Amino acid sequence: MARAGDHIQTTIKKALAGSQIAYSTLLDTFWNEVYGFQLKRTENENDAEDITVQTFSKAFDKLNTYNADYEFKTWLIAISKNIHVDLIRKRKKNLETGGHQDVVKKVLDDAPSAEDQLIREQNLASLLLHIKKLKPHYQEVINLRYFKELSYADIAKELNEPINNVKVKLLRAKKLLAEVIQKK
């Protein structure tokens, strides 16, 4: 009988081979645990969500450095803790000095997912109503990607965020939008 850990290791291998569905599966599987962990630490939904987005962004960017001897969730939580500590340091420093810089990173090509297909099948008026139910930053990435048809790099410039953050936000926004559509 296959263990849950074996399934995760297989999914990680597929992600490393470039499967967008595998990345989406990892995000869906571990989002709530990382977000919940950060919500307890920060006691702030926006900070918890931002840190969780950054955690997956960094994890996906450095996936080739993941050591399978350790649980994937433990690795994600460690990244998440470090991002939170960095955020606290950065805020302290910004209070003293002010200013920040972001670096745009490489893009993973994305094949259409089940969520993409569901989103495409909606008529525009009802789709816009569904989008309005999402948090503003998710509305924004959906708008930039699907209505303004911007590339990940252009969205990253527009939002002044690292490209991997944009990709994770878009994955998350598509999942949430698909859930809203399926509820109707």
Automatic annotation (TrEMBL):
The keyword Transcription regulation applies. It comes from the Bacteria. GO terms for molecular function: DNA binding; sigma factor activity. Gene3D superfamilies: 1.10.1740.10, Winged helix-like DNA-binding domain superfamily/Winged helix DNA-binding domain (1.10.10.10). GO terms for biological process: DNA-templated transcription initiation. Residues 32-93 form the RNA polymerase sigma-70 region domain. Keywords: Sigma factor, Transcription, Transcription regulation. Residues 131-177 form the RNA polymerase sigma factor 70 region 4 type domain. The keyword Transcription regulation applies. Belongs to the sigma-70 factor family. ECF subfamily. This is RNA polymerase ECF-type sigma factor. It comes from Zobellia galactanivorans (strain DSM 12802 / CCUG 47099 / CIP 106680 / NCIMB 13871 / Dsij).
